[in-house]
């Protein structure tokens, strides 16, 4: 790094601005280039630091004078300016890679197609409640680079996407967690699932036996890829169906943890976990295993499991009205996420789904829907694909473009003990700004309904 003088940051979001501030702090000449319009808070950050930047364009000549480029994960390798920099031989890395070069803190990197945010937040919560000096970064909270400027933490818990992993050359976490790999973002990988798998596995390529790799063993692509690789990291498996000698597994109503090297075994009753669903048992086992590798006291971990509250819009309990539980799972924008939601709920379900279809294949959830869903409420402008597929498979199907109607119909179609579940399987942009807006409007509608009925209970 000593030879690097000029650093160019491509993209001025949270990761880009954080990287720019860290680079300036370390004495580099910094230039920030963003092809779009900067958010005001980031413009203020750069102006306050006296960092040169441009927006709405990329000045090729100035960018190609860089000794090192730190690229936003949102910018694809196919973008013209990125291709030109690579042709010139300029090293291009991610903000996580850059920040890791300036901290001696331990790092926990969590990736997977689904479940990253929940597992990251839970791991952070468990460690913090256990008394560790821990920071939260990556795709949640402030950027890793911004936090490394002061570098006040002993451990950083990082949520990392495949796009970020693609920009890592030397980074090796102390603990890497791989939750699952299912087809997603394939447009960034030449529509090759294997290339996407390869991207995820880059997270462990630099790891040695001193570091820990935790993975979900029930997902075929991970097991298949592991069989083809010589992994040097210490491996811990997680399973919902098999007993695991080194790792964790679900044993009826307990989570069981075995650490072979320490000859230790622990059991946690499932009812001590605040999260819903089998997929969240995987997330919980991954988080707890991580704390155990950090020597966290088990009694503090169990206590913290009870108090954890997930990020909004992820199987979020909203309210109970006349003994019917309303759940907001607006973040479930694909069929795989809906599968986990349906699988994890034991009660009969009134399912609210719909929005912009992303090429969904509903075969994966057909059996679960037939078994558990008593009514389907389609919330979207065009519900044709949903209604065509589930007609004859669900007793009652209704359509609306009103979230208030959806909540009210959920109450009308349910009975005491049922669950009304918003888990759309689709993008939100036909009726809402984003999935957060959809979830917030649903929660507001449920609260209004609760206040009108007068017999509700907040969760």
UniProtKB/TrEMBL annotation:
ATP binds at residues 112-118. It catalyses: UDP-N-acetyl-alpha-D-muramoyl-L-alanine + D-glutamate + ATP = UDP-N-acetyl-alpha-D-muramoyl-L-alanyl-D-glutamate + ADP + phosphate + H(+). Pathway: Cell wall biogenesis; peptidoglycan biosynthesis. SUPFAM superfamilies: MurCD N-terminal domain, MurD-like peptide ligases, catalytic domain, MurD-like peptide ligases, peptide-binding domain. Residues 110-289 form the Mur ligase central domain. It is found in: Cytoplasm. Keywords: ATP-binding, Cell cycle, Cell division, Cell shape, Cell wall biogenesis/degradation, Cytoplasm, Ligase, Nucleotide-binding, Peptidoglycan synthesis. GO terms for molecular function: UDP-N-acetylmuramoylalanine-D-glutamate ligase activity. Its main location: cytoplasm. Its EC number is 6.3.2.9. Residues 313-426 form the Mur ligase C-terminal domain. It comes from the Bacteria. Cell wall formation. Catalyzes the addition of glutamate to the nucleotide precursor UDP-N-acetylmuramoyl-L-alanine (UMA). Belongs to the MurCDEF family. This is UDP-N-acetylmuramoylalanine--D-glutamate ligase. It comes from Imperialibacter roseus. The lineage of its organism: Bacteria, Pseudomonadati, Bacteroidota, Cytophagia, Cytophagales. The gene is murD.
